[in-house]
Specification:
Mean pLDDT: 96
Shape: globular
Number of strands: 19
Oligomer: single chain
Length: 352
């Protein structure tokens, strides 16, 4: 397990650690309620330095990556970020990634444990282009701020960032890049930090957040927020058989960019106008459920669960899961396989 750069700081704060695909992650601090509440009502700081980063250099870096992902890269402005899927020739996902375009390179931010897979996939198609792939997880770290008082931590006069908008900033003597990340929480900002300066920046953010009520946020509380927001995570809700539209990733797809690996399948599915199944929300009440559990309507299997949490905002257990299009109407009652418990289909994001 690859340890966190800030392991000792988290340990001093009473952190519990878990392994997520070979990388150390802070599961939580105490009971986790303080961080969750801070992300909802004040500001929370999450160490996302377990995420893996690839760097692409060379004259053809943009055109090469443009032909490998579902999103626009060629016309992405320098300094901007975007979210994309990588799919194989059958249109099934290899991974998802956030792409940051800089003057001299491209950075790709992927889920822990998937960096090598993404690099292998890209290198398979890298033949004559002037582009080179570099492992960059050791060069950069990501710290995530969430909550309505995020702006007050980043300095007087800081204005909120739109999703994937970027802004350079100097924190604790480090040149960092702020990237709006509002998918889970509407005020979210990711701070991209040179790995060597991550401790100084963590301490600076923690100090600046003392008055606004900043609390550290563990992975388990972040998962609560993610599921409540209806955001799928690759490796949990999306796997190598998932078609992006099944997971509601239409925002990750450009329909005007031209050819890329898997484009014909994505275009055909889009033209058809529907998918046989879609990711949706499910209200579980107090049902004892776990990811992978089948969903049935009568005797027919109509889906399965992917993420299950106890939601403070809903006052019950809730889940993300895939459900057949004939059973997607909100309020539809389904049963959990192997028991009498019923669950209800709910729109995403969960309200409340």
């Amino acid at each position: 397990m690859e340890p966190l750069s800030l392991h000792f700081l988290h340990e001093e704060a009473g952190a519990r650690f878990i392994d997520v695909r070979g990388r150390e992650v802070v599961a939580g601090y105490g009971n986790g309620e303080d961080g969750y509440r801070a992300a909802r009502e004040a500001v929370a700081l999450h160490d996302a330095s377990y995420r893996e980063i690839l760097r692409i250099t060379g004259e053809d870096r943009a055109s090469f990556l443009h032909g490998m992902v579902t999103q626009e890269v060629n016309n992405l402005p320098v300094g901007a970020a975007t979210y994309a899927a990588l799919v194989n020739v059958k249109g099934a996902m290899v991974a998802d990634a956030r792409i940051l375009k800089r003057e001299a390179d491209l950075l790709m931010d992927v889920e822990p444990g998937h960096g090598a897979k993404v690099r292998e996939f890209l290198e398979k198609y890298l033949i004559s282009e002037d582009a080179e792939l570099h492992e960059a997880t050791g060069e950069y770290a990501i710290l995530r701020l969430l909550g309505p008082r995020t702006a007050s931590v980043l300095g007087e006069g800081f204005s909120p960032l739109a999703h994937h908008a970027t802004r350079p900033l100097t924190l604790a003597g480090q040149d960092v890049i702020l990237v709006g990340n509002t998918s889970v929480e509407p005020h979210g900002v990711d701070v991209w930090v040179p790995r060597a300066g991550v401790e100084a920046v963590w301490r600076a953010l923690s100090q600046a957040g003392a008055e606004p009520g900043l609390k550290p946020l563990g992975f388990e509380a972040l998962e609560l927020l993610r599921v409540e927001a209806g955001v799928p995570r690759y490796g949990q809700d999306m796997v190598d058989t998932t078609i992006p539209m099944e997971a509601n990733l239409t925002g990750a797809i450009s329909y005007n960019k031209g050819c890329y690996i898997g484009q014909e399948v994505i275009a055909r599915a889009t033209f058809r106008g529907h998918m046989n199944r879609k990711l949706t929300g499910l209200l579980l009440g107090e049902a004892d459920a776990a990811p992978g559990m089948e969903l049935r309507r009568g005797e027919k299997k109509v889906g399965w669960l992917t993420s299950v949490v106890r939601s403070p905002s809903q006052g019950q257990r809730v889940a993300l899961g895939y459900v057949h299009r004939d059973s997607l109407e909100p309020g539809t009652e389904l049963t959990l396989a192997g028991g009498p418990d019923t669950v209800k289909v709910a729109p995403l994001p969960f309200k409340g």
